[in-house]
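Lecture 7 notes: from sequence to structure.

We start with a single chain of 567 residues. Read the sequence below before looking at the structure.
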Amino acid sequence: MNTYMSKFEANYTALTPITFLKRAAMSYADRTSIIYGEARFTWQETYDRCRRLASSLQSLGIAKNEVVSVLAPNIPALYEMHFAVPMAGGVLNTINTMLDANGVKSILDHSEAKILFVDYEYIPLAYEALRLLNVDPKRSTTKLSVVIIGDSTNKNGKLESSKKHLEYEELVVKGNVDFMAVKIEDEWDPITLSYTSGTTSSPKGVVYSHRGAFLGTLSLILGWEMGTQPVYLWSLPMFHCNGWTFTWGIAARGGTNVCIRNTTASMIYKSIALHGVTHMCCAPVVLNIILEERKQLTTQVQVQVLVGGSPPPEKLLIKMEELGFYIVHAYGLTEATGAALVCEWQKRWDKHSHEERARLKARQGISVLNIEDLDVKDTVTMQSVPKDGKTTGEIVIRGSGIMKGYFKNEKATSEAFASGWFHTGDVGVIHPDGYIQVKDRLKDVIISGGENISSVQVEEVIYQHPEVLQVAVVAMPHPRWGETPCAFLVVKTAKHHTVTENDIITYCRNNLPHYMVPKKVCFLMDLPKTSTGKVQKGTLRAMAKNIQLPDFNNHLQMPPKFTSSRL
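Now the structure, written as C-alpha coordinates:
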Protein backbone atom coordinates (compact mmCIF):
# COMPACT_ATOMS: atom_id res chain seq x y z
CA MET A 1 0.00 0.00 0.00
CA ASN A 2 1.36 3.44 -0.92
CA THR A 3 2.77 5.40 2.01
CA TYR A 4 1.07 8.64 0.91
CA MET A 5 -2.24 7.26 2.15
CA SER A 6 -2.00 8.99 5.50
CA LYS A 7 -4.48 10.80 7.70
CA PHE A 8 -5.65 14.10 6.28
CA GLU A 9 -8.13 16.63 7.59
CA ALA A 10 -10.41 15.55 4.76
CA ASN A 11 -10.42 11.85 5.65
CA TYR A 12 -9.97 11.72 9.39
CA THR A 13 -11.80 13.48 12.23
CA ALA A 14 -11.92 12.49 15.86
CA LEU A 15 -15.14 10.75 16.85
CA THR A 16 -17.31 12.83 19.19
CA PRO A 17 -21.09 13.03 19.76
CA ILE A 18 -20.83 16.84 19.61
CA THR A 19 -21.11 16.47 15.84
CA PHE A 20 -24.64 15.06 16.18
CA LEU A 21 -25.96 18.46 17.29
CA LYS A 22 -24.37 20.40 14.44
CA ARG A 23 -25.79 17.88 11.97
CA ALA A 24 -29.25 18.12 13.57
CA ALA A 25 -29.20 21.91 13.20
CA MET A 26 -28.19 21.61 9.54
CA SER A 27 -30.56 18.79 8.63
CA TYR A 28 -33.55 19.32 10.92
CA ALA A 29 -33.32 23.04 11.68
CA ASP A 30 -37.06 23.69 12.13
CA ARG A 31 -37.91 20.34 13.68
CA THR A 32 -38.83 20.41 17.38
CA SER A 33 -35.85 19.42 19.51
CA ILE A 34 -37.14 19.89 23.06
CA ILE A 35 -40.55 20.14 24.72
CA TYR A 36 -40.79 21.10 28.37
CA GLY A 37 -44.12 22.31 29.68
CA GLU A 38 -45.04 25.26 27.47
CA ALA A 39 -41.48 25.70 26.20
CA ARG A 40 -40.56 24.58 22.68
CA PHE A 41 -37.19 24.66 20.95
CA THR A 42 -36.07 23.72 17.44
CA TRP A 43 -32.79 22.02 16.64
CA GLN A 44 -31.42 25.30 15.28
CA GLU A 45 -32.36 27.04 18.53
CA THR A 46 -30.82 24.27 20.62
CA TYR A 47 -27.59 24.44 18.61
CA ASP A 48 -27.47 28.23 19.00
CA ARG A 49 -28.13 28.02 22.74
CA CYS A 50 -25.41 25.42 23.20
CA ARG A 51 -22.91 27.53 21.28
CA ARG A 52 -23.77 30.56 23.41
CA LEU A 53 -23.45 28.58 26.64
CA ALA A 54 -20.13 27.06 25.55
CA SER A 55 -18.88 30.56 24.80
CA SER A 56 -19.87 31.75 28.28
CA LEU A 57 -18.21 28.74 29.91
CA GLN A 58 -14.94 29.63 28.27
CA SER A 59 -15.31 33.24 29.40
CA LEU A 60 -15.71 31.91 32.95
CA GLY A 61 -12.32 30.24 32.62
CA ILE A 62 -13.25 26.63 31.81
CA ALA A 63 -10.17 25.08 30.22
CA LYS A 64 -9.64 21.77 28.48
CA ASN A 65 -10.59 18.72 30.58
CA GLU A 66 -11.84 20.77 33.54
CA VAL A 67 -14.99 19.46 35.21
CA VAL A 68 -18.36 21.22 35.15
CA SER A 69 -20.92 19.69 37.52
CA VAL A 70 -24.68 20.00 37.35
CA LEU A 71 -27.40 19.13 39.87
CA ALA A 72 -30.71 19.16 38.03
CA PRO A 73 -33.67 16.99 36.98
CA ASN A 74 -34.58 16.21 33.35
CA ILE A 75 -34.88 19.78 32.08
CA PRO A 76 -33.70 21.49 28.86
CA ALA A 77 -30.67 23.02 30.57
CA LEU A 78 -29.32 19.60 31.56
CA TYR A 79 -29.85 18.35 28.01
CA GLU A 80 -28.06 21.36 26.53
CA MET A 81 -25.09 20.95 28.84
CA HIS A 82 -24.38 17.52 27.35
CA PHE A 83 -23.27 19.39 24.24
CA ALA A 84 -22.24 22.81 25.54
CA VAL A 85 -19.74 21.62 28.15
CA PRO A 86 -17.66 19.44 25.78
CA MET A 87 -18.01 22.12 23.07
CA ALA A 88 -16.17 24.41 25.50
CA GLY A 89 -13.52 21.73 26.09
CA GLY A 90 -14.83 20.77 29.53
CA VAL A 91 -15.91 17.48 31.08
CA LEU A 92 -19.54 17.16 32.16
CA ASN A 93 -20.37 15.67 35.57
CA THR A 94 -24.09 15.06 36.13
CA ILE A 95 -24.88 14.53 39.82
CA ASN A 96 -27.53 12.14 41.11
CA THR A 97 -30.33 14.33 42.46
CA MET A 98 -31.27 11.70 45.03
CA LEU A 99 -28.00 12.08 46.94
CA ASP A 100 -27.82 13.83 50.30
CA ALA A 101 -25.58 16.82 50.96
CA ASN A 102 -22.63 14.65 51.97
CA GLY A 103 -22.91 12.67 48.75
CA VAL A 104 -23.00 15.83 46.62
CA LYS A 105 -20.10 17.32 48.59
CA SER A 106 -17.99 14.18 48.06
CA ILE A 107 -18.52 14.30 44.29
CA LEU A 108 -17.72 18.00 44.05
CA ASP A 109 -14.56 17.41 46.04
CA HIS A 110 -13.42 14.27 44.24
CA SER A 111 -14.24 15.58 40.74
CA GLU A 112 -12.40 18.87 41.35
CA ALA A 113 -15.31 20.68 39.69
CA LYS A 114 -14.75 24.32 38.70
CA ILE A 115 -18.41 25.27 38.22
CA LEU A 116 -21.60 23.88 39.74
CA PHE A 117 -24.90 24.41 37.91
CA VAL A 118 -27.88 24.03 40.26
CA ASP A 119 -31.57 23.79 39.41
CA TYR A 120 -33.66 26.09 41.61
CA GLU A 121 -35.38 23.10 43.26
CA TYR A 122 -32.03 21.84 44.59
CA ILE A 123 -30.62 25.12 45.91
CA PRO A 124 -30.96 24.10 49.61
CA LEU A 125 -29.23 20.76 48.92
CA ALA A 126 -26.43 22.47 46.99
CA TYR A 127 -25.92 25.13 49.64
CA GLU A 128 -25.55 22.50 52.36
CA ALA A 129 -23.11 20.52 50.21
CA LEU A 130 -21.08 23.67 49.59
CA ARG A 131 -21.07 24.47 53.29
CA LEU A 132 -19.67 21.02 54.04
CA LEU A 133 -17.14 21.47 51.27
CA ASN A 134 -15.93 24.81 52.61
CA VAL A 135 -15.44 23.56 56.17
CA ASP A 136 -13.55 20.44 55.06
CA PRO A 137 -9.92 20.99 56.16
CA LYS A 138 -8.69 18.65 53.41
CA ARG A 139 -10.33 20.72 50.69
CA SER A 140 -8.14 22.98 48.56
CA THR A 141 -8.93 26.69 48.50
CA THR A 142 -9.95 26.60 44.82
CA LYS A 143 -13.15 28.61 44.46
CA LEU A 144 -16.18 26.83 43.04
CA SER A 145 -18.46 29.07 40.97
CA VAL A 146 -22.21 28.50 41.21
CA VAL A 147 -24.74 29.01 38.41
CA ILE A 148 -28.46 28.85 39.17
CA ILE A 149 -30.86 27.30 36.66
CA GLY A 150 -34.17 29.13 36.93
CA ASP A 151 -37.66 28.05 35.96
CA SER A 152 -37.38 27.40 32.24
CA THR A 153 -40.97 26.36 31.55
CA ASN A 154 -40.81 29.34 29.23
CA LYS A 155 -37.82 30.32 27.12
CA ASN A 156 -37.04 33.44 29.14
CA GLY A 157 -37.48 31.97 32.61
CA LYS A 158 -35.47 33.75 35.33
CA LEU A 159 -34.98 33.16 39.04
CA GLU A 160 -35.25 36.47 40.89
CA SER A 161 -33.59 35.17 44.05
CA SER A 162 -30.40 34.24 42.21
CA LYS A 163 -28.97 37.75 41.78
CA LYS A 164 -25.96 37.01 43.93
CA HIS A 165 -25.05 34.12 41.62
CA LEU A 166 -24.67 33.70 37.90
CA GLU A 167 -27.88 32.63 36.18
CA TYR A 168 -28.17 30.02 33.42
CA GLU A 169 -30.32 31.97 30.96
CA GLU A 170 -28.12 35.03 31.35
CA LEU A 171 -25.09 32.95 30.33
CA VAL A 172 -27.00 31.71 27.29
CA VAL A 173 -28.09 35.20 26.26
CA LYS A 174 -24.65 36.77 26.73
CA GLY A 175 -22.74 34.03 24.91
CA ASN A 176 -21.50 34.26 21.34
CA VAL A 177 -23.86 32.49 18.93
CA ASP A 178 -21.02 32.20 16.41
CA PHE A 179 -18.79 30.37 18.88
CA MET A 180 -16.88 27.51 17.29
CA ALA A 181 -16.68 24.35 19.38
CA VAL A 182 -13.25 23.36 20.61
CA LYS A 183 -11.79 20.97 18.07
CA ILE A 184 -11.34 17.49 19.48
CA GLU A 185 -7.83 16.49 18.46
CA ASP A 186 -7.79 13.24 20.42
CA GLU A 187 -11.02 11.22 20.57
CA TRP A 188 -9.64 9.51 23.68
CA ASP A 189 -10.04 12.79 25.58
CA PRO A 190 -12.64 12.69 28.37
CA ILE A 191 -16.17 13.94 27.69
CA THR A 192 -18.03 13.06 30.90
CA LEU A 193 -17.42 11.97 34.47
CA SER A 194 -20.20 9.80 35.97
CA TYR A 195 -20.31 8.37 39.47
CA THR A 196 -21.55 4.85 40.10
CA SER A 197 -24.67 4.39 42.20
CA GLY A 198 -22.74 2.88 45.08
CA THR A 199 -25.16 0.00 45.68
CA THR A 200 -22.31 -2.48 46.19
CA SER A 201 -19.36 -0.24 47.08
CA SER A 202 -18.26 3.34 47.45
CA PRO A 203 -19.14 5.38 44.35
CA LYS A 204 -16.35 5.66 41.79
CA GLY A 205 -15.86 8.27 39.10
CA VAL A 206 -16.27 6.69 35.65
CA VAL A 207 -14.62 8.58 32.80
CA TYR A 208 -16.04 8.35 29.26
CA SER A 209 -14.10 9.30 26.15
CA HIS A 210 -15.48 11.17 23.14
CA ARG A 211 -14.87 8.03 21.10
CA GLY A 212 -16.68 5.78 23.56
CA ALA A 213 -19.64 8.14 23.80
CA PHE A 214 -19.90 8.42 20.00
CA LEU A 215 -19.74 4.68 19.36
CA GLY A 216 -21.92 3.84 22.35
CA THR A 217 -24.62 6.20 21.10
CA LEU A 218 -24.69 4.79 17.58
CA SER A 219 -24.55 1.20 18.83
CA LEU A 220 -27.56 1.62 21.08
CA ILE A 221 -29.83 3.40 18.60
CA LEU A 222 -29.00 0.63 16.12
CA GLY A 223 -29.45 -2.14 18.67
CA TRP A 224 -32.83 -0.76 19.67
CA GLU A 225 -33.70 -0.22 16.00
CA MET A 226 -34.69 3.37 16.74
CA GLY A 227 -35.97 4.99 13.56
CA THR A 228 -35.88 8.62 12.53
CA GLN A 229 -37.85 11.35 14.30
CA PRO A 230 -38.54 9.50 17.55
CA VAL A 231 -40.51 11.36 20.21
CA TYR A 232 -38.51 10.41 23.27
CA LEU A 233 -39.87 10.79 26.82
CA TRP A 234 -37.26 11.45 29.48
CA SER A 235 -38.53 8.99 32.10
CA LEU A 236 -34.91 7.91 32.68
CA PRO A 237 -32.66 10.31 34.63
CA MET A 238 -30.18 12.08 32.38
CA PHE A 239 -27.66 11.83 35.22
CA HIS A 240 -27.68 8.04 34.85
CA CYS A 241 -24.97 7.11 32.30
CA ASN A 242 -25.82 10.35 30.45
CA GLY A 243 -29.30 9.01 29.87
CA TRP A 244 -27.87 5.77 28.45
CA THR A 245 -26.36 8.03 25.71
CA PHE A 246 -29.79 9.12 24.43
CA THR A 247 -28.92 12.70 25.35
CA TRP A 248 -26.75 12.51 22.24
CA GLY A 249 -28.77 9.84 20.45
CA ILE A 250 -31.97 11.85 20.01
CA ALA A 251 -29.95 14.55 18.23
CA ALA A 252 -28.42 11.86 16.02
CA ARG A 253 -31.91 10.71 14.99
CA GLY A 254 -33.39 14.20 14.66
CA GLY A 255 -36.00 13.36 17.27
CA THR A 256 -37.86 15.31 19.92
CA ASN A 257 -36.93 15.29 23.61
CA VAL A 258 -39.95 15.47 25.91
CA CYS A 259 -38.54 16.58 29.27
CA ILE A 260 -40.42 15.98 32.51
CA ARG A 261 -39.26 17.12 35.94
CA ASN A 262 -40.73 14.14 37.79
CA THR A 263 -41.33 10.61 36.54
CA THR A 264 -44.90 9.93 37.64
CA ALA A 265 -47.68 7.92 36.02
CA SER A 266 -49.71 11.08 35.40
CA MET A 267 -46.80 12.85 33.68
CA ILE A 268 -46.02 9.78 31.57
CA TYR A 269 -49.62 9.36 30.41
CA LYS A 270 -50.08 13.11 29.87
CA SER A 271 -46.91 13.30 27.77
CA ILE A 272 -47.95 10.33 25.67
CA ALA A 273 -51.37 11.86 24.99
CA LEU A 274 -50.10 15.39 24.23
CA HIS A 275 -46.95 14.67 22.28
CA GLY A 276 -47.33 11.21 20.77
CA VAL A 277 -44.41 9.66 22.60
CA THR A 278 -42.86 6.77 20.64
CA HIS A 279 -39.88 5.81 22.83
CA MET A 280 -38.87 5.85 26.48
CA CYS A 281 -36.38 4.17 28.80
CA CYS A 282 -36.78 3.19 32.43
CA ALA A 283 -36.07 0.71 35.20
CA PRO A 284 -38.64 -2.06 35.88
CA VAL A 285 -39.96 -0.11 38.88
CA VAL A 286 -41.36 2.50 36.47
CA LEU A 287 -43.22 -0.25 34.61
CA ASN A 288 -44.95 -1.11 37.87
CA ILE A 289 -45.94 2.55 38.31
CA ILE A 290 -47.39 2.64 34.79
CA LEU A 291 -49.27 -0.60 35.35
CA GLU A 292 -50.69 0.40 38.73
CA GLU A 293 -52.09 3.67 37.34
CA ARG A 294 -53.22 2.33 33.96
CA LYS A 295 -56.72 3.78 34.48
CA GLN A 296 -55.15 7.15 33.63
CA LEU A 297 -54.44 5.88 30.12
CA THR A 298 -57.07 7.58 27.94
CA THR A 299 -55.67 6.92 24.47
CA GLN A 300 -54.32 4.03 22.45
CA VAL A 301 -50.53 3.88 22.70
CA GLN A 302 -47.71 2.22 20.84
CA VAL A 303 -44.57 3.00 22.79
CA GLN A 304 -41.20 1.26 22.54
CA VAL A 305 -39.66 0.88 25.99
CA LEU A 306 -36.02 0.04 26.65
CA VAL A 307 -35.70 -1.41 30.14
CA GLY A 308 -32.49 -1.85 32.12
CA GLY A 309 -31.77 -3.07 35.61
CA SER A 310 -33.16 -6.26 37.08
CA PRO A 311 -34.83 -8.66 34.63
CA PRO A 312 -38.49 -7.70 34.10
CA PRO A 313 -40.74 -10.49 35.38
CA GLU A 314 -42.51 -12.34 32.59
CA LYS A 315 -45.94 -11.52 33.98
CA LEU A 316 -45.13 -7.81 33.96
CA LEU A 317 -43.95 -7.95 30.34
CA ILE A 318 -47.19 -9.56 29.22
CA LYS A 319 -49.36 -6.97 30.98
CA MET A 320 -47.34 -4.04 29.61
CA GLU A 321 -47.62 -5.36 26.06
CA GLU A 322 -51.39 -5.58 26.45
CA LEU A 323 -51.39 -1.83 27.18
CA GLY A 324 -49.32 -1.03 24.08
CA PHE A 325 -45.89 -0.74 25.70
CA TYR A 326 -43.43 -2.97 23.83
CA ILE A 327 -40.50 -3.88 26.04
CA VAL A 328 -36.94 -4.47 24.92
CA HIS A 329 -34.59 -5.54 27.67
CA ALA A 330 -31.05 -4.17 27.84
CA TYR A 331 -28.13 -4.74 30.15
CA GLY A 332 -25.37 -2.36 31.01
CA LEU A 333 -23.32 -0.61 33.62
CA THR A 334 -22.04 2.88 34.19
CA GLU A 335 -18.61 1.55 33.22
CA ALA A 336 -19.93 0.34 29.84
CA THR A 337 -21.22 3.78 28.74
CA GLY A 338 -24.73 2.56 29.39
CA ALA A 339 -26.07 -0.48 27.56
CA ALA A 340 -23.71 -3.27 26.52
CA LEU A 341 -26.31 -5.91 25.64
CA VAL A 342 -29.73 -5.63 24.01
CA CYS A 343 -32.23 -8.44 23.67
CA GLU A 344 -32.68 -8.12 19.90
CA TRP A 345 -35.93 -9.69 18.81
CA GLN A 346 -35.90 -12.59 16.37
CA LYS A 347 -38.76 -12.79 13.86
CA ARG A 348 -39.03 -16.53 14.36
CA TRP A 349 -40.07 -15.89 17.96
CA ASP A 350 -43.34 -14.24 16.87
CA LYS A 351 -45.01 -17.64 16.59
CA HIS A 352 -44.46 -18.42 20.27
CA SER A 353 -47.04 -18.03 23.02
CA HIS A 354 -47.22 -14.84 25.11
CA GLU A 355 -45.53 -16.66 27.96
CA GLU A 356 -42.65 -17.94 25.83
CA ARG A 357 -42.12 -14.54 24.18
CA ALA A 358 -42.00 -12.92 27.61
CA ARG A 359 -39.44 -15.48 28.78
CA LEU A 360 -37.24 -14.72 25.77
CA LYS A 361 -37.63 -10.96 26.26
CA ALA A 362 -36.50 -11.21 29.88
CA ARG A 363 -33.02 -12.22 28.76
CA GLN A 364 -30.33 -9.58 28.50
CA GLY A 365 -29.42 -10.43 24.91
CA ILE A 366 -26.43 -9.96 22.64
CA SER A 367 -23.75 -7.30 22.53
CA VAL A 368 -24.26 -3.90 20.94
CA LEU A 369 -21.92 -3.14 18.05
CA ASN A 370 -19.25 -1.25 19.99
CA ILE A 371 -18.61 -4.27 22.23
CA GLU A 372 -15.87 -6.24 20.48
CA ASP A 373 -16.30 -9.37 22.55
CA LEU A 374 -18.18 -10.75 25.54
CA ASP A 375 -18.11 -14.01 27.39
CA VAL A 376 -19.14 -15.78 30.56
CA LYS A 377 -16.09 -17.03 32.43
CA ASP A 378 -15.52 -19.40 35.30
CA THR A 379 -14.42 -17.08 38.10
CA VAL A 380 -11.56 -19.38 39.17
CA THR A 381 -10.15 -20.71 35.89
CA MET A 382 -11.25 -17.84 33.59
CA GLN A 383 -12.32 -20.49 31.09
CA SER A 384 -15.48 -19.94 29.05
CA VAL A 385 -18.53 -21.77 30.38
CA PRO A 386 -20.57 -24.00 28.04
CA LYS A 387 -23.35 -22.37 26.01
CA ASP A 388 -25.99 -24.47 27.69
CA GLY A 389 -28.08 -21.81 29.43
CA LYS A 390 -27.31 -23.49 32.75
CA THR A 391 -23.63 -23.16 33.67
CA THR A 392 -22.98 -19.88 35.41
CA GLY A 393 -19.94 -17.63 35.43
CA GLU A 394 -19.02 -13.96 35.48
CA ILE A 395 -20.05 -11.82 32.50
CA VAL A 396 -16.98 -10.12 31.02
CA ILE A 397 -16.84 -7.68 28.12
CA ARG A 398 -14.37 -5.59 26.14
CA GLY A 399 -14.64 -3.01 23.42
CA SER A 400 -14.80 0.69 22.60
CA GLY A 401 -17.83 1.21 24.82
CA ILE A 402 -15.91 0.56 28.01
CA MET A 403 -14.87 3.49 30.20
CA LYS A 404 -11.39 5.01 30.12
CA GLY A 405 -11.12 4.09 33.81
CA TYR A 406 -11.98 5.27 37.31
CA PHE A 407 -10.96 8.86 38.01
CA LYS A 408 -8.03 9.03 40.44
CA ASN A 409 -8.36 5.32 41.25
CA GLU A 410 -5.66 3.32 39.48
CA LYS A 411 -6.07 0.27 41.73
CA ALA A 412 -9.79 -0.13 41.03
CA THR A 413 -9.19 0.43 37.31
CA SER A 414 -6.55 -2.30 37.17
CA GLU A 415 -8.79 -4.73 39.03
CA ALA A 416 -11.72 -4.02 36.73
CA PHE A 417 -9.58 -4.62 33.62
CA ALA A 418 -7.76 -7.74 34.84
CA SER A 419 -6.93 -10.43 32.25
CA GLY A 420 -7.83 -8.18 29.33
CA TRP A 421 -11.54 -8.01 30.14
CA PHE A 422 -13.84 -5.65 31.99
CA HIS A 423 -15.24 -7.66 34.89
CA THR A 424 -18.89 -6.78 35.37
CA GLY A 425 -19.38 -8.53 38.69
CA ASP A 426 -22.57 -10.08 37.31
CA VAL A 427 -23.26 -13.80 37.17
CA GLY A 428 -24.87 -15.12 34.02
CA VAL A 429 -25.29 -17.94 31.53
CA ILE A 430 -24.99 -18.17 27.75
CA HIS A 431 -27.84 -19.85 25.94
CA PRO A 432 -27.21 -22.01 22.86
CA ASP A 433 -28.34 -19.12 20.62
CA GLY A 434 -25.65 -16.86 22.10
CA TYR A 435 -28.00 -14.75 24.22
CA ILE A 436 -26.79 -13.83 27.68
CA GLN A 437 -29.00 -14.04 30.74
CA VAL A 438 -28.03 -12.45 34.04
CA LYS A 439 -28.59 -14.66 37.03
CA ASP A 440 -27.21 -12.54 39.87
CA ARG A 441 -24.56 -10.20 41.13
CA LEU A 442 -21.47 -12.12 42.26
CA LYS A 443 -21.97 -10.96 45.82
CA ASP A 444 -25.71 -11.70 45.67
CA VAL A 445 -25.26 -15.41 44.99
CA ILE A 446 -26.36 -17.30 48.08
CA ILE A 447 -24.14 -20.24 49.01
CA SER A 448 -26.13 -22.64 51.13
CA GLY A 449 -24.48 -25.87 52.25
CA GLY A 450 -22.02 -25.60 49.36
CA GLU A 451 -24.77 -25.11 46.77
CA ASN A 452 -25.12 -21.85 44.81
CA ILE A 453 -28.58 -20.30 44.85
CA SER A 454 -29.49 -17.57 42.37
CA SER A 455 -31.44 -14.86 44.15
CA VAL A 456 -32.84 -13.78 40.77
CA GLN A 457 -34.29 -17.24 40.15
CA VAL A 458 -36.01 -17.23 43.53
CA GLU A 459 -37.29 -13.70 42.90
CA GLU A 460 -38.75 -14.70 39.54
CA VAL A 461 -40.78 -17.46 41.16
CA ILE A 462 -42.04 -15.34 44.07
CA TYR A 463 -43.06 -12.55 41.70
CA GLN A 464 -45.50 -14.95 40.04
CA HIS A 465 -47.57 -15.01 43.25
CA PRO A 466 -50.71 -12.95 42.54
CA GLU A 467 -50.36 -10.82 45.69
CA VAL A 468 -46.70 -9.85 45.19
CA LEU A 469 -45.82 -6.42 43.79
CA GLN A 470 -42.06 -6.29 44.48
CA VAL A 471 -39.57 -8.83 45.77
CA ALA A 472 -35.87 -8.99 46.59
CA VAL A 473 -34.02 -12.03 47.89
CA VAL A 474 -30.74 -11.87 49.79
CA ALA A 475 -28.62 -14.14 51.96
CA MET A 476 -29.22 -14.40 55.69
CA PRO A 477 -27.09 -16.35 58.20
CA HIS A 478 -28.01 -19.96 58.84
CA PRO A 479 -26.56 -21.95 61.77
CA ARG A 480 -25.96 -25.08 59.71
CA TRP A 481 -25.80 -24.16 56.02
CA GLY A 482 -23.95 -20.89 56.47
CA GLU A 483 -26.42 -18.91 54.35
CA THR A 484 -30.02 -19.31 53.32
CA PRO A 485 -32.44 -17.18 51.25
CA CYS A 486 -34.42 -14.40 52.92
CA ALA A 487 -37.19 -12.74 50.90
CA PHE A 488 -38.32 -9.12 51.30
CA LEU A 489 -41.74 -8.45 49.79
CA VAL A 490 -44.07 -5.60 48.94
CA VAL A 491 -47.60 -6.87 48.40
CA LYS A 492 -50.38 -5.32 46.35
CA THR A 493 -52.87 -4.86 49.18
CA ALA A 494 -52.47 -2.25 51.89
CA LYS A 495 -52.78 -4.75 54.72
CA HIS A 496 -50.21 -7.54 54.84
CA HIS A 497 -52.45 -10.01 56.63
CA THR A 498 -54.10 -10.97 53.31
CA VAL A 499 -50.98 -12.97 52.49
CA THR A 500 -48.79 -14.57 55.13
CA GLU A 501 -45.21 -15.68 55.39
CA ASN A 502 -46.37 -19.28 55.35
CA ASP A 503 -48.33 -18.65 52.15
CA ILE A 504 -45.20 -17.45 50.37
CA ILE A 505 -43.02 -20.27 51.71
CA THR A 506 -45.60 -22.86 50.68
CA TYR A 507 -45.84 -21.29 47.24
CA CYS A 508 -42.07 -21.48 46.89
CA ARG A 509 -42.00 -25.12 47.99
CA ASN A 510 -44.43 -25.92 45.20
CA ASN A 511 -42.36 -24.13 42.57
CA LEU A 512 -38.70 -24.37 43.60
CA PRO A 513 -36.19 -27.01 44.70
CA HIS A 514 -36.60 -27.13 48.46
CA TYR A 515 -33.07 -26.01 49.23
CA MET A 516 -33.81 -22.74 47.39
CA VAL A 517 -36.95 -21.92 49.39
CA PRO A 518 -36.59 -18.80 51.58
CA LYS A 519 -36.46 -19.63 55.25
CA LYS A 520 -37.74 -16.18 56.15
CA VAL A 521 -40.16 -13.78 54.48
CA CYS A 522 -40.35 -10.11 55.53
CA PHE A 523 -43.03 -7.66 54.40
CA LEU A 524 -42.11 -4.02 53.69
CA MET A 525 -44.02 -0.97 52.52
CA ASP A 526 -41.35 -0.46 49.85
CA LEU A 527 -37.96 -1.86 48.90
CA PRO A 528 -34.96 0.42 49.37
CA LYS A 529 -33.81 1.60 45.93
CA THR A 530 -31.39 3.92 44.26
CA SER A 531 -32.77 6.79 42.18
CA THR A 532 -32.41 4.64 39.07
CA GLY A 533 -34.61 1.88 40.47
CA LYS A 534 -31.93 -0.58 41.57
CA VAL A 535 -32.80 -2.43 44.74
CA GLN A 536 -30.22 -1.71 47.43
CA LYS A 537 -29.50 -5.29 48.40
CA GLY A 538 -26.70 -4.20 50.69
CA THR A 539 -29.30 -2.53 52.90
CA LEU A 540 -31.45 -5.66 52.84
CA ARG A 541 -28.48 -7.90 53.64
CA ALA A 542 -27.76 -5.77 56.70
CA MET A 543 -31.38 -6.19 57.81
CA ALA A 544 -31.27 -9.93 57.17
CA LYS A 545 -28.19 -10.35 59.37
CA ASN A 546 -30.28 -9.37 62.40
CA ILE A 547 -33.13 -11.79 61.70
CA GLN A 548 -33.38 -14.87 63.87
CA LEU A 549 -34.99 -18.04 62.56
CA PRO A 550 -37.92 -18.86 64.86
CA ASP A 551 -37.46 -22.62 64.89
CA PHE A 552 -34.18 -24.07 63.65
CA ASN A 553 -35.38 -27.66 63.27
CA ASN A 554 -38.48 -26.69 61.31
CA HIS A 555 -36.40 -24.72 58.80
CA LEU A 556 -33.65 -27.20 58.03
CA GLN A 557 -33.44 -28.31 54.42
CA MET A 558 -30.64 -30.42 53.02
CA PRO A 559 -28.98 -29.38 49.76
CA PRO A 560 -30.18 -31.52 46.80
CA LYS A 561 -27.13 -33.79 46.70
CA PHE A 562 -28.10 -35.06 50.19
CA THR A 563 -31.86 -35.39 49.70
CA SER A 564 -34.47 -36.78 47.34
CA SER A 565 -36.78 -33.75 47.64
CA ARG A 566 -38.82 -32.98 44.50
CA LEU A 567 -37.03 -30.62 42.09
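Residues 445-562 form a domain with the GMP Synthetase; Chain A, domain 3 fold (CATH 3.30.300.30). Keep this in mind for problem set 3.
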